[in-house]
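Let's practice the habit of predicting before peeking. Look at the sequence and jot down your guess about where helices and strands might fall. Then scroll down.
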Amino acid sequence: MVNTLLEAGGRELLMLTRDDGTSCLWISAQNGHLEVVNALLEAGGRELLMLTKDDGASCLSVARRANHGEVFRVLEVACQNAGLSSHEITILKR
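Done guessing? Here is the structure:
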């Protein structure tokens, strides 16, 4: 389903956020949807990882707070693979 939506809407659809800055990756991380997170990361890369809500909450921080350990680890590795510095990753974990 995610791949079908990505094919139909492309990167533009992927990068849309709610009024409060919530992205599709943020919601997927919050709900622990590992397969969806993986598909979104493959399509959105660094730019999608860096999106935060207006209050500064990132997909990485919400996965940690929601105790979705596997999703958190996947996001953390994706941050490293995207070339984020350890300082940037630390900020996203807050």
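How did you do? The two ends are 31 Å apart (CA to CA).
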